[in-house]
What we know:
By secondary structure, the chain is mainly α. It contains twelve helices and three strands, in the order E-H-H-E-H-H-H-H-E-H-H-H-H-H-H.
Amino acid sequence: MSNNTNFHPSTFLLLGIPGMEAIHTWLSVPFCLVYLSALVGNFAILFIIRTDSNLHEPMFLFLCMLSTADLIISTTAVPKILSIFWFHGREIHFEGCLVQVFLIHSLCSMASGFILAMAFDRYVAICDPLRHSTILTPRVIKNLGLAIFFRGVLLFSPQPLMLRWLPYCRTNVIPHTYCEFMALIKLACAETRTCRIYSLTAAFLTGGLDFLLIVCSYVIILYTVFHLPSKAARLKTLGTCGSHVCVILAAYTPAFFTFLTHRFGQHVAPHIHIFVANIHLLVPPMVNPVIYGVRTKRIRDRFLQAFTFHKL
Length: 312
C-alpha cells in the first residue's frame, strides 16, 4: 500500500461521534426529531408562501430559497448519520463521499448567501423604503438567487476533484458523522497545502464575506433607526429585523466555531468539534421555520388558518 501513490479506497468508514459510541442510539432520538421538525417546518414554509400571494415579497421569497437549501443540506447528511447510529452502517462509497462533501459545502454557502440577501432586503426596506419595490423587483430577486446558486457551485465544485486526485494510503476511517473536506484532507498522504489554502479562500469568499457584509448592513440600519424621531418608530423598525437576526445567530455561531476549531483548535476534544459540526447542519434548518413562523404574524396566521381548516 505504501508503494501505491494513487491508492483510493473503494469505501470510507464513518465512525459517528468518537468517544460517544455507547450513546449513539440515544443520540439518534434528538437527531431524528430535529430532522423531522426541519422537514415539516421547511415544507410548511414553502407551502404557505407558495399558496399565499400576499407573501410573495422579497424577504419571504429569499426565505423560500433558504428553506430549500436547508432541506437538501439536512437530507444529504442526516439519513446517513441515523444509519450509523441505528444500524452501524458506517460504510460510504468513495464517490458518494465526494458528492456529500460537494453538496454540504456548496449548499451551506448558498444558505449563507440567502441570509445575506435577506439582510440586503432589510437594508433597503429601512434605509430606502420608497424605492424598495423598484430595487428588489422579481427579476432582481431571481438574478440574486441564481448568482448565489452559481457562486456555491463554482467555488466548491473543485473540492471533490481535489479530493479525488489525492492518495489515501494511511487509513479509510473518518472520525466523523459525515464526509467533510478537511476530515478527508487529514487522511491524505500527500502535500495538501494548496487544497487547504483553496478551502480557506472559498470559505472566506462565502461565509466570511457574507458575514462582513451582513454586519455592515446592520451598522447602517442601526444608524438609520436611531435617527428616527420617536422611540415607538425605532422599536417597530427594529422589530422587523428580529427574525433575521435570530437566523444569523443560529447559522453563523456554530459555523464559526467549527471553522476555527478545524484550523486552530488542536486542544478541543474531537467529540465536541464533531457535535458542534452536527449542530451546524441540523439546528438552523429546524429553527429557521420556527423563528419566522412564530415571529411573523402573517405566516403564523396562515399556518393556524390551514391547521384549523384541516382540523374541521
